[in-house]
TrEMBL record:
<keyword id="KW-0479">Metal-binding</keyword>
<dbReference type="InterPro" id="IPR023404">
    <property type="entry name" value="rSAM_horseshoe"/>
</dbReference>
<keyword id="KW-0004">4Fe-4S</keyword>
<dbReference type="Pfam" id="PF04055">
    <property type="entry name" value="Radical_SAM"/>
</dbReference>
<dbReference type="Pfam" id="PF16199">
    <property type="entry name" value="Radical_SAM_C"/>
</dbReference>
<dbReference type="GO" id="GO:0046872">
    <property type="term" value="F:metal ion binding"/>
</dbReference>
<dbReference type="GO" id="GO:0051539">
    <property type="term" value="F:4 iron, 4 sulfur cluster binding"/>
</dbReference>
<dbReference type="InterPro" id="IPR006638">
    <property type="entry name" value="Elp3/MiaA/NifB-like_rSAM"/>
</dbReference>
<dbReference type="GO" id="GO:0005737">
    <property type="term" value="C:cytoplasm"/>
</dbReference>
<dbReference type="GO" id="GO:0003824">
    <property type="term" value="F:catalytic activity"/>
</dbReference>
<keyword id="KW-0408">Iron</keyword>
<dbReference type="InterPro" id="IPR007197">
    <property type="entry name" value="rSAM"/>
</dbReference>
<dbReference type="InterPro" id="IPR058240">
    <property type="entry name" value="rSAM_sf"/>
</dbReference>
<dbReference type="InterPro" id="IPR032432">
    <property type="entry name" value="Radical_SAM_C"/>
</dbReference>
<feature type="domain" description="Radical SAM core">
    <location>
        <begin position="2"/>
        <end position="230"/>
    </location>
</feature>
<keyword id="KW-0411">Iron-sulfur</keyword>
<dbReference type="GO" id="GO:0002926">
    <property type="term" value="P:tRNA wobble base 5-methoxycarbonylmethyl-2-thiouridinylation"/>
</dbReference>
Length: 352
């Protein structure tokens, strides 16, 4: 399998018509809104990353942090033109960017196509109109559906959706309903960022005046585990789970409240693996199992926080073996009877 690599170039909050209640891209990305990039800066960023990459990787230049298709057309042309040079010389294989659902139409898509755009990520956040209104998104769920339909008319471009569970007005039921609607839209991939209270946002004021209560870490892990499980069942890839914080966001006073954890994805995986281990215990006694085989990347999640998952499961001598031939998010049990039995996370029953 060819490895995927992305060269991230941030245009923080540029192209956005207004501030959503949760957004302070300057703190999230560590860059200021007014810092417009030059051709030289873009080339320097791309060249620096390419020097550290193996030749046998699939590389995309990714413009993130703002609403790309809301930028001045001349600025878009400059950035896309520089990126296209790297596509034409074979060093880069595509371009991706994030934008708003209401900043997509047929004319925009026709403009983008010649530059070699390979993926568009829509900042959806929620598919509940009440949540969108309280978050001051300025678009509706219907506009998301329209944008998805338009992008789907261009098969060479992948579709990604970005979700923020836990926004004002959100509930677990609403979040799961949003996830089900996302399943019906059949995106190629999804990012999930539980809502955080960041300094300098309206959400900070709402939190301070007790108009908004963020999810606890435990709630966020629970919600995201169920959302991710639904996406697994429908083979929708989750490429990011939890915010990757810049140094600026990690600085004292930047993150006010909310379910931030540097290893949030592992916490969610560990919760799902705990359920899988509980299921196995119901089906077999540990005395019947000789070896529990998993992909090496799943070891931390299988063991769980402070090793609690594995300690609870392996009360007798079950060997934990790492095997890169085992698929991610599944395990193979080598039974003492000689049988090999497989379990997958996506086969877990959905819970309420």
């Amino acid at each position: 399998m060819i490895k995927q690599r992305r060269i991230a170039i941030f245009v923080p909050h540029q192209g956005c018509p207004k501030d959503c209640v949760f957004c302070n891209q300057a703190r999230i990305t560590g860059q200021k809104r007014e810092e417009q990039l030059t051709e030289e800066q873009i080339r320097a960023i791309v060249d620096q990353h390419l020097r550290t990459m193996d030749e046998k990787v699939h590389v995309e230049i990714a413009f993130f942090g703002g609403s790309f298709t809301g930028l001045p057309r001349g600025y878009q042309k400059m950035m896309l033109g520089v990126a296209k040079e790297y596509i034409d010389n074979g060093q880069v294989q595509g371009i991706r960017f994030s934008t708003r659902p209401d900043y997509i139409n047929e004319a925009i898509m026709e403009f983008l196509l010649p530059y070699g755009v390979t993926a568009i990520e829509l900042g959806v956040q929620s598919l509940d109109d009440h949540v969108l209104a309280l978050s001051q998104r300025g678009h509706t769920a219907e506009q998301v559906a329209t944008a998805v339909e338009i992008i789907r008319n261009y098969p060479s471009i992948q579709l990604g959706l970005q979700l923020l569970p836990g926004l004002p007005g959100d509930t677990k039921e609403i979040a799961m309903n949003t996830a089900q609607q996302v399943v019906n839209m059949r995106p190629d991939f999804v990012r999930i960022y539980p809502a955080l209270v960041i300094a300098g946002t309206e959400l900070e004021w709402m939190y301070a005046t007790k108009q908004y209560k963020p999810l606890s870490l435990e709630e966020a892990v629970d919600w995201c585990a169920q959302i991710w499980l639904l996406f697994m069942k429908h083979q929708i890839q989750v490429i990011r789970l939890g915010l990757h914080a810049s140094e600026d966001l990690r600085a004292e006073g930047s993150l006010i409240a909310g379910p931030f954890h540097p290893s949030f994805r592992q916490l969610v995986e560990a919760k799902l693996y705990r359920r899988l281990l509980d299921t196995i215990v119901k089906d077999y006694s540990s005395e019947e199992i000789d070896t529990f085989m998993i992909h090496p990347a799943d070891e931390t999640a299988v063991r769980g926080p402070r090793g609690a998952n594995w300690a609870s499961f392996a009360q007798s001598s079950v060997d934990l073996a790492l095997n890169s031939n085992v698929e991610r998010h599944q395990c193979q049990l080598a039974m003492k009877s000689g049988k090999i039995i497989s379990y997958r996370l996506r086969d877990l029953e959905s819970s309420s």
